């Protein structure tokens, strides 16, 4: 019985892609700390819960709407496809998570509330309709990767050049990741026929080159981060981030390991954030 309970929690964590949500939440908390935000205890809790629940809702609804595509692509890493979570339950809880995320943002001010409402609405619209709109759908998800830094600007009313660099980098990397995911799901998307993704319009080869080109663009904000880093510890983590991103390109172009490509881009982004924040401490 205990193992069943553990398995159930694991299934929900997979549905929510909980590691993404936790990363976004800590990115916001770290950004607020970096900017010396003067928040009370309730506001710190709200800052953690807002991106977490909106991300959880977005991914749960994504799996609800993607059932047919995931079946065609044999995505057994999805708990709905494995039969561990009912599709209707994913929809109801996903929608509830989006609402909770918006409500959680109330203590953070009107601008942050407006951003949370926009983010939740965009997430729902993306899952329901925008996903099969080439580039625009990819950009919507990329925008969510930059959200922690935008929340920090909205909450504090100020910005910082290194956090702007991180926001731009997160958007660029998110765009590359999502276009890469379209390649991974190409077969299922084509069979389901719900719309046109970028690989379906321009082909696999040109899509791969586009992803690599987008990665090269990310060298601009990463280079700017490097120029502004004065800490040896920060440089160490930045070099690790660059290594992870180069490795992810190899997984994408040479070995066609799309899951590892997405995992290493996430690791690279996390290390890049760590470089900035460690650079302030040491």
Summarize the structure.
The protein is built from 14 helices and no strands. It has 282 residues and is an all-alpha fold.
Number of strands: 0
* Second-tier CATH architecture: Orthogonal Bundle
Largest sheet: none
**Uncertain stretches:** none
CATH class: Mainly Alpha
Computed CA radius of gyration, to the nearest angstrom: 19 Å
Large-scale geometry: globular
* Element pattern in H and E: HHHHHHHHHHHHHH
Describe the structure.
The chain has about 280 residues and is mainly alpha-helical. The chain has a single domain, classed as Farnesyl Diphosphate Synthase. The chain contains 14 helices and no strands. It is globular and about 50 Å long. The termini are far apart. About 45% of the residues are buried. The model has no long low-confidence stretch (mean pLDDT about 90).
Task: Summarize the topology.
Elements: H1 2-16, H2 18-34, H3 41-65, H4 67-72, H5 87-104, H6 110-128, H7 136-156, H8 161-184, H9 186-192, H10 198-202, H11 204-217, H12 219-228, H13 232-253, H14 258-281
Highlighted features:
282 residues, globular, mainly alpha, Farnesyl Diphosphate Synthase, 14 helices
């Amino acid at each position: 019985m205990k193992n069943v309970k553990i398995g159930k929690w694991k299934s929900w964590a997979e549905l929510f892609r909980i590691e993404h949500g936790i990363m976004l939440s800590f990115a916001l908390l770290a950004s607020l700390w970096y900017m010396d935000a003067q928040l009370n205890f309730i506001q710190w809790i709200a800052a953690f819960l807002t991106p977490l629940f909106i991300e959880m809702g977005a991914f749960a609804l994504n799996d609800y709407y993607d059932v047919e595509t995931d079946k065609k692509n044999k995505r057994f890493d999805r708990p709905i496809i494995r039969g561990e979570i009912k599709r209707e339950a994913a929809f109801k809880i996903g929608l509830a998570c989006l609402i909770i995320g918006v409500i959680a943002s109330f203590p953070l001010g009107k601008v942050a509330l407006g951003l949370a409402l926009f983010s939740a609405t965009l997430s729902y619209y993306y899952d329901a309709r925008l996903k099969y709109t080439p580039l625009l759908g990819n950009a919507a998800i990329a925008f969510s990767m930059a959200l922690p830094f935008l929340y920090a600007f909205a909450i504090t009313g100020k910005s910082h050049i290194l956090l702007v660099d991180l926001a731009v980098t997160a958007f660029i990397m998110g765009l590359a990741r999502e276009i890469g995911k379209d390649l991974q799901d190409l077969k299922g998307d084509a069979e389901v026929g719900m719309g046109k993704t970028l690989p379906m319009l321009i082909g696999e080869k040109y899509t791969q080159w586009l992803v690599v080109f987008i990665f090269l663009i990310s060298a601009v904000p990463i280079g700017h981060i490097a120029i502004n880093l004065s800490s040896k510890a920060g440089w160490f983590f930045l070099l690790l981030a660059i290594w992870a991103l180069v490795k992810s390109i190899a997984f994408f172009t040479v070995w066609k390991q799309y899951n590892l490509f997405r995992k290493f881009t996430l690791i690279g982004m996390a290390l890049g954030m760590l470089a900035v924040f460690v650079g302030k401490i040491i």
